[in-house]
Amino acid sequence: MRSGRSGHAAPPGKTAWAGRIRPMSCRRKTRMALGGKARHIAAMDTLTPPPLSDESWHLIATRAPAPFLYGVTTMGIYCRPICPSPRPKRANVRLFASPAEAAAAGFRACRRCDPECTRAALAADIVRTACAQIEAAETIPSLDALATRSGYSRFHFLRLFRAHTGLTPRSYAEGVRGRRLQAALAAGERVADAVAGAGFGSESRVYENTARHLGMTPGRARRGGEGESIRTAFADCPFGRLLVGATDRGVCFLGFAEPDEALLGDLRHRFPRARIEHDEPGLAAMLATVLAFLAEPATALDLPLDLRGTAFQRRVWEALRRIPPGQTSTYGEVARAIGAPRAVRAVARSCATNPVSLAVPCHRVVGADGDLTGYRWGIPRKAALLSAESAAAQRVPPPDPRADRPHPPARSKAAPPRP
């Protein structure tokens, strides 16, 4: 047998490459260990850390969020506990309180979990620049143009943008156009001029989907809702006065716990020129549904809704409606549910601008530490709603798994055989 390049025969019992690869591999490992990383290893050997507690190791082993960093002495890197890298041996783990402490001990930052947040800060800056470019442009910039300016591929840029804003660049641009159009119409501009100034190609683009852009026709929006008819009805509820406002499409306002004039003032602020009519008989069924929910909140409040907001707000409101009574979610969990894990503050703003409380249960969203945080109608009422829903959920018996099983067919008695 001849070796690949040298042409010499291999010794008996060995392959042609065995005698050459092994020494090169060993030399390479030795050079890597004693070369550039020698200063890290020397620093790590001097560490005398306290023993790792079972609780800390459990957080690392389960990749749970934790307020510390951990370093791996055999690799010379430090990571977040949520890092997706393979779990190290417990004996090789060292804990640190900050990136500076880990760097001083000779460890370098992991490139996967980015404990120094350098990549996250760079991505946030890129997204802010792209948002500014979209808002400054007269027309919607293409995805290729935005990605080229950012220096990333179009697919990587799209992932970054969605992770930080919860929207695609086009959806964000359409929201910007909608705000421009609404501001121009509120200022009294002609519909044609407002549509052109907002960046729409023609008026038909607005009229074909008025609910998405304005919630009403551009003419009515220009007149502050003039021509829009909103029926209202008051009732007494456990929290005081209750006001329900509805259009032909469904409930557009639901407020409580304030005097009648304050509730009507909130409604008029949202629709300054709409025609508001008192129609208690026509809304009696809706009032009864709301009052029944407040008396026994065991199931979700099911009402026809006329929700008017941006695309992101509507996504948040739909996510809130999927939270079952008796349960809560954090703002971060809602952000992850809509595919925007970093848009926690935007989720909180959408909850604060919710026009139909109870029907869109923003009271079921709490802080990361379980704190009730804020609520439009007061923290005590938020606590009372959550307590009532929790008690009602415990009173509801669990569904019987046998209820959905098909019943076996009845057996007919066979006729006795004839003699």
Task: Describe what this molecule looks like in 3D.
- With 419 residues, the chain is an alpha/beta fold.
- The protein has helices at 18-34, 38-45, 54-61, 99-104, 118-136, 143-150, 154-165, 169-186, 191-198, 204-207, 210-213, 218-222, 260-270, 284-295, 311-321, 331-337, 344-352, 379-395, and strands at 69-72, 77-79, 93-96, 108-109, 229-237, 240-246, 251-256, 275-278, 329-330, 365-366.
- It folds into four domains: 41-109, DNA Methylphosphotriester Repair Domain (3-Layer(aba) Sandwich), CATH 3.40.10; 117-222, Homeodomain-like (Arc Repressor Mutant, subunit A, Orthogonal Bundle); 229-295, Methylated DNA-protein cysteine methyltransferase domain (Double Stranded RNA Binding Domain), CATH 3.30.160.70; 311-395, Winged helix-like DNA-binding domain superfamily/Winged helix DNA-binding domain (Arc Repressor Mutant, subunit A).
- The protein contains 18 helices and ten strands.
- The strands form three sheets. It has a four-stranded mixed beta sheet with strand order 3-1-2-4.
- Strand 1 and strand 2 form a beta hairpin.
- Helix 5 (118-136) packs across helix 8 (169-186), helix 8 (169-186) runs antiparallel to helix 9 (191-198) and helix 16 crosses helix 17.
- The longest helix has 19 residues, at 118-136.
- The termini are far apart.
- The model is unreliable at 1-7, 14-22, 30-43 and 410-414 (pLDDT under 50).
